[in-house]
Amino acid sequence: MNGKMHREHGLSFLDFIFGLLIVAGLAYVLVVGPWIRDQKIADLRAQPPVPSIEARKLVALYETKPTPVAVPTGEYVGHIDLGGQMVPITYYFGANSVLAVEATIKGSFMSMRPKVTLAGSAPYTFTGSVLVFGDVTGDKVLFSPLGLPIDIKSAHQLVIRSGGESVTLNATQRQEK
Questions:
Q1: Which pLDDT does position 61 carry in this prediction?
Q2: CA gap 160, 157 in Å, rounded
Q3: Sign of the alpha-carbon torsion through 84, 85, 86, 89
Q4: Global pTM?
């Protein structure tokens, strides 16, 4: 045997365990992870957000403020924090007091479903400085059942407040004529 160890042909127990771990990891990344993400998105889409106590207090405060004189029109874009991920969001204030909202959640590098777009629209009215929504069409999660407190900084910038967060929205070139 010349002092050398000869290995039998085939896999050792450690090779088998290592291969099993690789297969399990790939199965999670390619099958289980996207499935869990899809379930979270489905749950998110179906439910309007549950207002916190802070959000209720903020809405009550903004309801006492005067209704904005200049109502926004056209497209405004910004970013929101959704589960620790910064998500681009677009608000389009259309004719007849209808608000359309769209947010795109990007997937991970290995995900088989790289992005999900949440979209919806609803008629709105103002109660003080709060946008109050009628019947929502599409993803309800984008529209607070209490309404959204809004500060109109200028014709080109809005600030929407929700609980402890503020989202600054800037007008784009796509404005309603």
A1: 93
A2: 10
A3: negative
A4: 0.72
Which residues, in sequence order, are CB contacts of 163 under 8 Å at separation 6+? 51, 52, 54, 55, 58
- CA–CA dist 63, 93 (Å, integer): 20
Cβ within 8 Å of residue 31, ≥6 positions away: none
Q: Is residue 39 part of a domain?
A: no
> In the chain, which stretches have pLDDT less than 50?
1, 177
Please answer whether residues 105 and 82 qualify as being in contact, where contact means their C-beta atoms are separated by less than 8 angstroms. Answer: yes
Q: What is the dihedral of CA 33, 103, 158, 126, to 10 degrees?
A: -110
Say if 125 falls within a structural domain.
yes
Please indicate, yes or no, if residue 138 is contained in any of the structural domains: yes
Q: What total number of domains does the chain contain?
A: 1
The per-residue pLDDT for range 111-128, each reduced to its tens digit, is 555 677 889 999 999 999
Rg, the chain, Cα only: 25
CA dist 76 → 8, 122, 151 (Å): 68, 16, 13
CATH (domain of 113): 2.40.128
CA distance linking residue 100 with residue 113, whole number of Å: 24
Q: Is 130 exposed, middle or buried (0-12, 13-18, 19+ CB in 10 A)?
A: buried
